[in-house]
Amino acid sequence: MRSLLLPLLLLAIGASACATKSAAKVSSDNVSSVGTQPRSEPVKPPSSPAKEVAELPALDFGPIYYELDSATLRPDSRVLLDHVAEALRPRRETRVTISGHTCELGTTEYNLALGQRRASAARDYLVKLGVERDRIAVVSYGEERPAESGSGESVWSRNRRSEFSVSVAHARVDAP
Known about the structure:
The protein has helices at about 1-30, 50-55, 75-90, 110-130, 155-160, and strands at about 65, 95-100, 135-140, 160-170. It is α+β, with helices and mostly antiparallel strands and about 180 residues long. It has two domains: about 1-45, no CATH class; about 50-170, CATH 3.30.1330.60. A four-stranded mixed β-sheet has the order 1-4-2-3. Strand 2, helix 4 and strand 3 form a beta-alpha-beta unit. The longest helix has 29 residues, at about 1-30. It is elongated.
């Protein structure tokens, strides 16, 4: 007898859940509120911030380049940073690390300081465009991580750069 009751109980619960779901769908899809005319379009449920971020285009930014012994942003770099800021502003949980790099000319200490100034210049420009400072980290690698190996001005000019590494901070949920 018990073996018969359990399947019947599950069947009854499943049938009532289906009826409730379809009734809820009818009321939310076709009626905007009590006493008003039916809506011609279904009501769109509110989207979550995570879903909104997922619907935005992917973040993939190329490097920005600098002149020899300079941390001044070039006009083409400002254009790229404008796009970076536009993409970052609506993504509140997105963080970016800007790494500053140099060519091999100069001492290690000088190149680390120059890389830091380059990354900081890019960060300051993004902050000026409305990206919160606490979402942007800067790091300098100086000459230690070249984009290209070799020597000569064409190689060195590609190593004078700042690069962007983007990550999404996930909200931490503590278990009860």
